[in-house]
Each structure stands twice: as structure tokens, then as C-alpha cells.
Amino acid sequence: MDGQALKNAFQETQQHLLKLLNDLSAIRALADINLHHTSEPGLLHDAMRTLMENSDIERCSIFILNDNTLQCVGGMGWSDILPPEPESYTGPAAHSFNIGEGIAGLAAKTGQLQHCRNSRREPQFAHPLDRAAIGSLISVPLCANKIMLGVLNVSHSRPHSFNTSHERLLLLFCTVLAQMLSNLRYGHHMEQEVRERTSELEGALEEMAHLKHRYQELSMIDELTGIHNRRYFFPEATASLANALRYRQPFSLMMIDLDRFKNVNDSYGHDTGDKVLRVAAALLKGQTREGDVIARFGGEEFIMVLPNTDRRGATQLAERILESLRTVAFNSGDTSIHVTACIGISSLNGTESPDQKDLLEQLLREADRALYFGKNSGRDQVRNYGDVATA
Fold it and tell me: Looking at domain 228-390, which CATH architecture does it have?
């Protein structure tokens, strides 16, 4: 095996280990919920929060089976995991499914995980929310001791956002959650059975303790680009936004997505694609000031929080970023590659109410909408949500 192949294999192994650590952390955090000091709604709320904090889904909800009807008892999205106070949790409007109805109903009927990869094209998709709001959906049955208890739904606004690793995590997560729910209902004397079911997980965590310590810093750092990841982004962005609201200062959020990045990987290989991501991240980091927050948000997507920056200042910065990116040439053999990007911006003018709820989630949606407006308008451009909203 040559040196490059060995390096690639090592990097792939690291990524798998980090993903496994995150998955095990989700299961461990779920198993650590104290059933002696919680109610059924409290268990379900803590379980959803644990899943949101350790995965890249946008929203989850839980349906409990009652008289052959799946009744929604709680839901959670980005905004619900941002504030530290549990009082901030707000469930969705009540709705239900019959057994066999939609993806959730099919999961309850068959006892099998159901994966709706593109809800906008699959006729079996059924959900009370606007179809356009959900792109991908996984429904996993909550079944313990051959008794169907309910269904866990996880969703993302973009189609094809989930893969087999998400399915494996959710299957294990729901197995543990269903057993805990069953134990809670039938009494705390069942705690010993929960501990026995998680003993194998405890052993695996002990074996990987040294790896967890080694990659403790990497849990907040994207290994490929060296900048922060989305786990770091949410608490930092929340604090920055709270400070801006408190002192009535302008605030901007910027989403950057490289244009046609899949074509770079397909045409020139992943090594070239990785180089493009590293250079783009370094370029973005070089444009930040003290107090700005920058993170890799997805595959080729980055996000920046700009405190004390109004729409005009954010736009000027975005234009400088695009111009800098246009001047960079990436060499792949005898070929010179140029990469462009689209940037979506959402801004506050400093007059917003400090107690306004779900504001960060709103800014994320607005910046994402502005970004994809730019994608659909020809790419290599900056778009402000204010312009997009009136277009």
C-alpha cells in the first residue's frame, strides 16, 4: 500500500471513529437518563434533546400509540436545543396518524424502519406540515418486548439527507428508548434489565476511552478544514445573538456554499476536492474578525456569524470573499480549476426584541433561502434575504 492510500485509509478510519463516538455518546447519554426522577413526557423530551445534540438532523418528533392511533406527544427542532432552559421547549401542534397511514403509520404497522428519501416525490409521504418543509424523513418504531409503543420521526428539509449510518444509529437509539419507556411504565424495578441491555455499550465505551480523550478537541473541530464544526457553532452563535439583542446591536448570519462542488470530486477526485475545501476554509477564516464565528456546516457548506455587522457590512464582506475565491486556481495534473460560491445573508438591524423566540433558527432559514435563491439564479453571487423575500 503506497503512502497516499495509507493516508486516505487512516483518514477514513478517523472519520468512522469520530462518527462512532458521536453515535455511542448519543446512546450513552440516553441510557444515563435517571428513570427514578422523571416522568414519561420528561423522558421523551430528554431523549429527543439527546438525539438532536449528537446528530445532524433538523427536527424530530415522537408519536405514542393509543387505541390504534399514533398521537404526537412532542417535537423538537434547532431552536429547542439552543437555549439552556428546558422551559424553552415547545411541542408541535397536536396531530395523529392511523396505523398504516403515511410513513409513520407504516413503521408502526410493519415494525420496520421506513425511510422516505424525498418526501416531495414519494406519494406515500403523509405529514400535517407543508410538504415543501420536509425533504427527508425516517420513521422508526418504538417496540419493546414485542409490544408497539410508538414511532420516532426524524426529518431534514433537504431530500436525500440521511444514509445507512443514520438508520443504524436510529435503530439502536429507538431500541434503547423503547425499553426505557417500557421500564418507566411498568416500574423502577426494571432498571436492572436496562443496565444489562447497555452493558455491552459500557464495555465498548471503556475500550474507546483513550480515543475519546485523543479526539476531545476534534469534537469541536472539523478535521479536514481545521475550522470549527456545527457542534461548536450552535452555542457560540446563540451567545453572540443574545449579546446583540441585549445591547440592540446589528447582527448578520452568512451561509456559503461552493458551486458545483460534486463535479470537482467526480471529475478530479476527492483529493482535489479536499484541497478546495481546505483552501476555502482558510480563505474564510482569514476574513473573520475577533468575535466572529465560522464553522463548516455541511459537506461544502460553511456558516459565519457576524456580530455588530449590518446588512451592508455583511454584503461587502461577502463580495470580498467571492472575489478572493475567484482568484484562486487549483491544479489537478495539467488542469487549472477555478471554484465559485453562493452566499446567503440574513441580518438584524438592532431593534429586535431580546425575548423574541426561535430567532437563530429563523436567521438560518432566511440565509439558507437566500443562498439557494442565488444558486437558482446563476451561482457565484451574494443574496440578501431581504431582497429574496420581496422577489
Answer: 2-Layer Sandwich (3.30)
Q: Say how far residue 338 (Cα) sits from the centre of its chain.
A: 29
218 pLDDT higher than 90: no
- Write out the three cell numbers for 254: 452568512
Residue range(s) occupied by CATH 3.30.70.270 in the chain: 228-390
Lowest mean pLDDT among 16-20, 41-45, 277-281: 16-20
What is the Cα–Cα distance from 14 to 9, expressed in whole angstroms?
Answer: 9
The answer to whether residue 233 scores a pLDDT higher than 60 is yes
CA 70 to CA 143: how far, in whole Å? 13
pLDDT digits (tens, 9 = 90+) for 314-370: 999 999 999 999 999 888 878 888 999 999 999 998 877 766 678 999 999 999 999
Domain with CATH 3.30.450.40 in the chain: 12-214
pLDDT value of position 96: 85
How many C-beta neighbours within 10 Å does residue 323 have?
9
Rounded (10°) CA dihedral 31, 34, 35, 38: -120
Q: Give alpha helix (H) positions in the chain.
A: 3-31, 40-53, 78-81, 102-110, 164-186, 191-197, 199-207, 209-214, 230-246, 261-268, 270-286, 311-326, 359-376, 385-390
Q: Residue 71 is placed in which grid cell?
A: 398521537
pTM: 0.47
What are the grid coordinates assigned to 203, written together?
464495555
124 strand-pairing partners: none
The CA distances from residue 337 to 170, 261, 271, 319, in Å, are: 40, 11, 13, 20
Q: Which CATH class is domain 12-214?
A: alpha beta
State the DSSP code for 221.
Answer: B
Residues 6+ apart with CB under 8 A from 86: 45
